[in-house]
Amino acid sequence: MTTREITLSNFDDTIKEGGIVLLDFWAAWCGPCRMFAPVFEKAAEAHSDIVFGKIDTEAQQELAGGFGIRSIPTLMAFRDGIMVFNQAGALPAQQLEQLIEAVEGLDMDQVRKEVAAAQAE
Prior knowledge:
The record marks 24 as: Deprotonates C-terminal active site Cys. One of its GO terms (cellular component) is cytosol. With 121 residues, the chain is of the alpha/beta class. It has one domain (4-120): Glutaredoxin (3-Layer(aba) Sandwich). Helix content is 46%, strand content 23%. The chain has five helices and five strands; from the N terminus they run E-H-E-H-E-H-E-E-H-H. Strands 1-3-2-4-5 form a five-stranded mixed beta sheet. A hairpin with a 2-residue loop joins strand 4 (74-79) and strand 5.
């Protein structure tokens, strides 16, 4: 599967699909973003069961602003609609694979309990 363009209009539906969603916040003028793009694309091709979305921070300023994006590239991972990873900086291929494995291995019942406890505070 290739990457998908994520916009304000399709963001919620994409996250609510369930499963794993990886988002790359980027811009055309960003050198590290251009360097990370082929790594992200290759991972998308290798993991057809995961949604790989790209958010152009120039075109989607409201979405980027809503997440407080200050540095790009920024990579976010969602699983079952819950953000489980958020980090600025390009990842090498091996680290991206490790991240994917970690997200796949999460105990989502435990994650939901932790989210509920944090929201109750």
